[in-house]
Amino acid sequence: MSDSPDTADKALHARTKASPMPSATSRKLRVVPSGAAARATALSSALRTLDLECEGLQRLRGALDREQGAALGKAVATLAAAKGRVIVTGIGKSGHVGQKMAATFASTGTPAFFVHPSEAGHGDLGMITPEDAIVALSWSGESVELGNILTYSRRFKVPLIAITSRADSTLAKQSDVVLELPRAKEACPHGLAPTTSTTMQLALGDCLAIALLEHKGFTAHDFKTFHPGGSLGAALKFVADIMHTGERLPLVGENALMSAALVTMTQKAFGCLGVVDSKGRLAGVITDGDLRRHMGADLLSARTADIMTRKPKVVTPGMLASAALEMLNASRITALFVVDKSKPVGILHVHDLLRAGVA
Fold this sequence. Notes:
Oligomer: single chain
Number of strands: 12
Shape: elongated
Number of helices: 16
Radius of gyration: 32 Å
Strand order of the largest sheet: 2-1-3-4-5
Helix content: 40-55%
Strand content: 5-15%
Largest sheet: 5 strands, parallel
CATH superfamily of the largest domain: Glucose-6-phosphate isomerase like protein, domain 1
């Protein structure tokens, strides 16, 4: 029987009386740096952390380049062959990394989700089918919480990939593929908080996701399907999604008089004019700069072919809008014609990109 509250209070009072708190004079006061000293200490700590984590990544790279390369290839082939989903699991910090890993798989064309190992034994094993593949993360390879998933995977022959630092662990011995992480010093000065180890886990997960992405031929168009919202969704818009088409295009022929061309240029209000040849191909553009360079009494009677800049910078409908913005910024221009097989099919203005949230 447990102690009553009164009994517990008396026991606590007795212990407190027997072991009084040390006085302020007897305690060692810890001097906490402030101001410039604090900033220098924090910076030193941050740089040391980055150095140790970079060292861990270098060791991981070396391991993959040597003995772990074949295992990585087998892991990618196993995941690519799965007709179902990729199931990622892990406990503690490995579990947090696993959740990110599953999200990265899913967003890059490999259906995946995270199964918590503790919940697995309470019904979530039903989420895993023989057509799936499992990626299990455990630094020690001895996480008891993974036991139910390991048993289930062996019973129903679900492919199991282990990410662990111990090839002789229970997890590794039960797995079809073992990706062994190299031993590296944690950034935590006590060697306790998972830091370098989780960085390596995260990086290895990215290696798997990107290798799968490339194996499947996953494109930016596919990526956009899974990322329609937010700034990333805006950056993944294509030129074809934003460009002006049809009657909005400021186009004239090569032999048009500049007097008529200027009317078209003013009406369309893009600050430029496209000049097409007899086959409808974009032969050049006329910009405000071209007009200033040819300013004179003969300008209105000149032909567009004599004023235009030949071989202008153009984009295609399938180009990412962010890439088009970069081209505009690098060239210090405000508009680009969109061409398909050398024929203008649209025009893109920097203001359109800004309104779409691409910048």
